[in-house]
Design a protein that fits this description.
Elements (H helix, E strand, L loop, with lengths): L1 E5 L10 H14 L3 E6 L9 E5 L13 H10 L5 E5 L4 H9 L6 E5 L6 H5 L2 H17 L2 E4 L2 H9 L6 E3 L19 E6 L8 H11 L6 E6 L4 H13 L5 E5 L3 H10 L2 E4 L8 H8 L4 E4 L6 H4 L3 E4 L3 H12 L3 H18 L2 H15 L9 E2 L2
Parallel strand pairs: 1-2, 1-4, 2-3, 4-5, 5-6, 6-7, 8-9, 8-11, 9-10, 11-12, 12-13
Antiparallel strand pairs: 7-14
């Protein structure tokens, strides 16, 4: 098959879609497919992938308009079997709903959490303007993709009737590296975008209430946000007079992997996630996790590798007090449980095969697999 992934931006600074596209492309190539990528920016390893970059307009940059890329996707739609559009709310995503339908390629769309109620409330005025054009992409798609049952509900809430492939995002399972232990010090790690949806304000307030009871723990916050919001978070930390709290900036590649390995516990008290790539990454590196119930990670409890709790301050105080008294051996065992779970259910080598079969079903070359949900 010839498969083109289309996404506005692939780079270290992009959101959690970046590692998804990188891994999916790699494994689809290994399965014998010809894989292309259409984007306005590409960073990272895309060996054996036909990367086609379109220049973004210098004006209205917020909307990521690229007539050059739209033209390339349009031409590719005559030659490729599948065009898979990732995310929503850029004009690149909008364009796919106009330039792909009616041509040879089947159109697949992954909203990646952009239709959740919480996401729809953010910048709602701009989205209301774009919606009549954006919804065409979803209406014209031959197949939609969701990473969780919750995301299927978000998609169906808008009345879209196309079949939906329920396939979680995967994660790479790294070789186990040595943990760099600091004598007498343990690390609670937040690693994600510094963004209002992530629950950082509640985390800082909860940390203020529990940190004196756990003097052997420090809180490390890794990530980047807008200058305005990042400034607000750091100001809040100052006002709360937080001790043993470190803002280390964004981490990528080996530095990011080492942060997961060195951490004793990961936390993401998020309001909403369609998946939460950083949770899977932390678990794959053997780090147990505390995750907000706005993310679909109830399995943390079932697999004994973390806690799944509400993200209000009182709930965070309760779960932090419980988690931070856990012995190193207990957290290490939970980390091993999480790593085993990721290898069993979230290994990209296995999940890429589900995408491959889904595309083949769409082309009439395979029976409908059980993970494709039809109305």
């Amino acid at each position: 098959m010839k498969i083109m992934n289309v996404v506005p931006d692939i780079g270290e600074e992009a959101n959690g879609v970046t590692p998804v596209i990188q891994a999916l492309s790699k494994w689809l190539v290994k399965l014998g497919n010809d894989v292309g990528l259409g984007t306005i920016k590409a960073a990272g390893d895309f060996q054996e992938v036909d990367v086609q970059i379109g220049k973004k307009w210098p004006i209205f940059s917020r909307f990521e308009i690229s007539t050059e890329l739209a033209g390339k996707v349009s031409r590719a739609s005559h030659d490729y079997d599948i065009v898979h559009c990732h995310s929503l709310w850029s004009m690149i995503n909008v364009a796919c709903g106009y330039v792909v339908p009616g041509k040879r390629a089947k159109l697949v769309t992954s909203p990646h959490g952009t239709l959740s109620k919480h996401a729809m409330r953010r910048t709602s005025f701009l989205k209301s303007i774009l919606w009549p054009f954006q919804r065409r992409l979803l209406e014209k798609s031959d197949l939609l993709h969701a990473t969780s049952e919750e995301e299927i509900a978000d998609i169906r809430r808008f009345g879209f009737r196309a079949p939906i492939a329920l396939i979680p995002n995967g994660t790479n399972i790294p070789a186990v590296l040595a943990k760099r232990r600091s004598e007498g010090s343990r690390t609670l790690l937040f690693l994600s975008r510094i963004h209002p949806t992530k629950g950082l304000e509640q985390l800082l307030e909860a940390w203020q209430k529990v940190s004196d009871r756990h003097p052997d723990w420090c809180l490390v916050i890794a990530g980047v946000g807008t200058d305005e919001y990042e400034g607000q978070i750091k100001l809040l930390a100052t006002k709360l007079k937080l001790e043993r709290t470190v803002f280390c900036g964004p981490l990528y590649g080996e530095a990011k992997a080492q942060a997961y390995i060195d951490a004793d516990l990961f936390i993401l008290p998020t309001y909403t996630e369609n998946f939460g790539m950083v949770v899977a990454e932390a678990l794959a590196h053997g780090c147990p996790a505390i995750v907000g119930t706005g993310a679909p990670w109830a399995g943390l409890v079932d697999h004994d590798c973390g806690w799944w709790e509400d993200n209000d301050v009182a709930s965070l105080v309760k779960v932090l007090d419980l988690a931070l008294i856990s012995s190193p051996d207990r957290l290490e065992k939970m980390g091993k449980n999480g790593r085993s779970w990721m290898n069993q259910d979230y290994n990209w080598e296995k999940l890429s095969g589900k995408f491959d079969i889904s595309y083949r079903w769409l082309l009439g070359k395979a029976d409908r697999p059980e993970w494709i949900k039809e109305l």
